Amino acid sequence: MYAELGFLGLARRVFLEVNGPDLVAQNTMLSACAKSGEVDFARSLFDRMPERDCVTWSAMISGYAQCGESREALSLFHCMQMEGVKVNEATMVSVLSACSHLGALDQGRWTHGYIERNNICMSVTLGSALIDMYAKCGDMGKAMEVFLGMREWNVYTWSAVMGGLAMNGAGKECLELFSRMKEYGVQPNEVTFVSVLRGCSVVGLVEEGRKHFDSIKQVYGLEPKLEHYGCMVDLYGRAGRLDDAFEFIKNMPMKPHAGAWGALLSACKIYGNMKLGELASRNLVELEAKNDGAYVLLSNIYADSRDWDRVTNVRELMKNKGVKKIPACSVMEVGGEVHEFFVGDKSHPRYGEIEVMLDEIARRLKLSGYVANTNPVLFDIDEEEKEDALVRHSEKMAIAFGLISLGEGVPIRIVKNLRVCGDCHEVTKMISKVFNREIIVRDRNRFHHFKGGDCSCKDYW
Q: d(Cα 428, Cα 435) in Å, to the nearest integer?
């Protein structure tokens, strides 16, 4: 009862008063801690338990997956199999969630095969998790295959596949699926409309997006949430209608949230609107004082205008407020093993080969006419050092590793914790053409499918 009501401290007090708690009591306490994010305490309970069943293992794996410790979740699942514990639907949903977070497609495929080999019932919940995993790993073909093969769909299944299509740049297909969903008589919910508005955004259908936004309340009787307002700002911003985006923010019936100001700031960066960018940045920082992305985007707007005094001011402001830029990290999976790359990091066991490939990439790109965009890099170092700093960005190291470790024609899939920088975006487009390799990058904002020198985001992210 205490756990369900969110009183974890009281739940722990009662648990500690139980003399020799049985497996059910232990599982209840472990699950409560895991759900509340206290995974270290949950793990200490788990390790001390003389007996564990499927519920125990599933609760611990779920706790890791929910708090973003996906590698630990997958590692524990491996241990669960080694001990021969029978898995259930809840376990597999958590494992798929961990694969989604890491972008670990190979492990996700293996998990899908495991579900089929062990005849685990493909419920609507499990099917939706499987669709979400494939979508977040950038394989929409497989996500659609799972969707079409399901016997039953609910609004969450439709929303998952539509969200995946929008996320991967297939806005037209997303909207077509929305029409089919309505034909099937399925009532959309708030999550559905986030997917629909994102679908409109990626294909630039501003007026259609506005109609869908208005229908949330007028047709379906739902109250638009902050996420829907943020999507509309992104829709106007992507279309270059920055004044409309700003007016929309001003007319919101509630206080604008960080998502809305962040979408406007990103649009200002793309379209070089310094004045509106400053305003968006100020409002964003008021809401999230430690939002490093707000400072970095504003700094880059100034850098693109070569206004180095203001770049200096932004960086001094970050320093004075104790705001530190989160280190960029790119993750990729090769042969079922997850590899992490940080900017300038030389600790990877194959770093020597990676460096050779980086040099080869630089050589081929220069022959193709590439000139590095060094504006956003620290301006107090010379041009050659700036170019070297750009070459060592985490996604470029990951791409180099992909080129030396994956077979010819195998797509390179990368998950990055930050927004892709302009130079890396341009370079990746060129690499996809020069090396004839499909590269799929999931950054903090969206997916980028690079192929033949083009990107699915149409250079807006």
A: 10
- For residue 413, give the H/E element and its range: strand 412-416
Q: Which residues, at least 6 apart from 110, have a Cβ–Cβ distance to it below 8 Å?
A: 336
What is the rounded CA–CA span in Å between residue 28 and residue 41?
13
Q: Tokens in use for 350?
A: 């194959």
Q: Give per-residue pLDDT as tens, 80-96.
A: 988 888 888 889 999 99
Q: Please give the full DSSP string across 17-82, using - where no structure is assigned.
A: HSSS--HHHHHHHHHHHHHTT-HHHHHHHHHH-S---HHHHHHHHHHHHHTT-HHHHHHHHHHHHH
Question: Which has the closest alpha carbon to 32: 58, 2, 61, 54?
Answer: 2
Rounded Cα distance, 230 and 150, in Å: 32
> Is the separation of the CB atoms in 103 and 414 below 8 Å?
yes
CA distance to 35, 96, 156, 263, 321, per residue, from 318 (Å): 34, 38, 41, 21, 5
Whole-model pTM? 0.81
Q: Minimal CA–CA distance to 332: which of 323, 341, 345? A: 341
Q: For 338-395, how does the pLDDT look when each residue is reduced to its tens digit (9 = 90+)?
A: 899 988 788 899 999 999 999 999 899 888 887 766 555 544 433 333 444 455 788 9
Cβ atoms within 10 Å of 347's Cβ, excluding its own = 8
pLDDT value at 266 more than 70? yes
Domain boundaries of the chain, sorted by first residue: 329-455
- Long-range contacts of 273-278, Cβ-Cβ distance < 8 Å, separation of 24 or more: 273/242, 274/301, 274/302, 274/305, 274/307, 276/242, 276/246, 277/301
DSSP 209: H
Measure CA 48 to chain center. Answer: 35
Question: Which tokens sit at 281?
Answer: 């940045």
